[in-house]
Amino acid sequence: MHRLTRDEARRIAVRAQLLDADRPGDVVEVAEQIAAIKIDPTAVIAPSEQSICWSRIGWAYEPGQLSKAVEGDRLLFEYDGHFRPASLLPALRAVMPGRRLGGSTRQYLEANAAFRAEILRRLEREGPLPASEIPDTSVVQVKNESGWYGANQVPRMLELMSYLGDVAISGRIGRQRVWDLPDRVYGARDAEMDPADAEDVLAARRLQALGIAREKSSWSGVGTAGEPAEVEGSAWRWRVDPEALAARGDDPGGRAAILNPYDRMLFDRPRLTELFEFTYVLEQFKPKHQRVYGYFAHPILVGDRFVGLLDAALDKKKENLVVSAVHELVPLDDDEREMAHAEVRDLGEWLGVPVRGLD
Predict the structure, then answer these.
(1) Quick check: is 86 in a domain?
(2) Most CB atoms within 10 A, among 23, 97, 103, 249?
(3) What are phi and psi of 223, to 5 degrees?
(4) Is residue 201 in a domain?
(5) Which of 160, 186, 212 is the last residue of a domain?
(6) Bridge partners, 348 (sequence order)
(7) What is the pLDDT of residue 149?
(8) Could you report the per-residue pLDDT of 138-172, keeping only the tens digit for each?
(9) What is the CATH number of the domain that holds 149?
(10) Which tens digit of pLDDT belongs to each residue from 178-190?
(11) Could you tell me the superkingdom of the organism this chain comes from (predicted)?
């Protein structure tokens, strides 16, 4: 049983997410370490997949690097709303067909078996296609209660088929996904991994990305990967990544980081509260009069503490980064405040626009 101070646990978590002073060199290094780069079109400042990379790499990151790694070099691939490293393909492909689906989803797939088969035949005949070029021959439709889907069932069916490994995303035209058969996107499999072994591999990679996580938490999915640990002042049962544990003495120090609300560092909300004493609520879906920190406030990390929230947005013409507020959640000294503000200015420089409204 490893016994960690709260400071040690936080530093392990920060370093695992590549948010310490030792910045990674490129997007492939980022993806290999954090395992998944969230894709989301919300671009109050920048789309999540772009700002997640910038938060790690800094000024050297250019948006074209991500598309090159995915569509040109095939070192990353898109699956289930994330860009992931190619090293995860064998394990993911082993578990895709056995993914658990809800009863209504299974019934939807069974009722639309002919629709599903027709999509596969069309892709095999015609090659990569966007959803707009595939006809909707569904027999049963899902009601659009959530507002995420239109009446056309093709996008929904393609997403389910991708989740189960029937189809794959070969690239994008703008934000529109292009679909194809998995072997043509991922390459033919040399050998199929046992699904149980694959689940172990994926759990270990999730723990690598987090550094430390609660054992058997549905938020983290690490199971019993890694080694057991106790954290000072916490009653939780933790798992810690052995490599992160071995490297804790080699600490490059901290820095400031501005995190997109969909950043992997923020996903495990209970862990944020337990380790960092930071309760983050995304106010995007709250009525305007109920928002405290802003529609899409970006958390600000300085060292191993979440010290504030940046409420900022590109103006409509994308000519300025307009800062409405930098909400300080804890008392900051002058150096910490300057670190946070310098990172906001660096964000504007990366976007290629002036920063307006920063004190």
Answers:
(1) no
(2) 23
(3) 55, -130
(4) no
(5) 186
(6) none
(7) 65
(8) 998 887 655 566 789 999 999 999 999 999 999 99
(9) 1.10.10.10
(10) 999 999 999 988 7
(11) Bacteria
Whether residues 182 and 272 fall in one domain: no
Among candidate residues 24, 17, 28, 19, the one with its CA nearest the CA of residue 85: 28
- The encoded tokens of residue 65 equal 């690097």
Cα gap 30→50, rounded to integer Å: 12
- The pTM score is 0.93
Average pLDDT, the chain: 95
233 residue type, one letter: G
Task: Report how many domains make up the chain.
Answer: 2
What is the residue range of 344's domain? 256-356
The Cα–Cα gap between 54 and 62 comes to 8
What Cα–Cα distance (Å) separates residue 306 from each residue in 265, 299, 302, 314?
Answer: 11, 7, 6, 23
Q: What digits encode the pLDDT tens for the residues 10-61?
A: 999 999 999 999 999 999 999 999 999 999 989 999 999 999 999 999 999 9
Buried b or exposed e, range 319-349, using 16+ CB within 10 angstroms? ebbbbebbbebeebeeebbebbbebbebbbe
Q: Of 127, 155, 186, which residue sits at a domain end? A: 186
Closest of 1, 20, 25, 15 to residue 247, by C-alpha: 15
Q: 359 or 329: which carries more pLDDT confidence?
A: 329
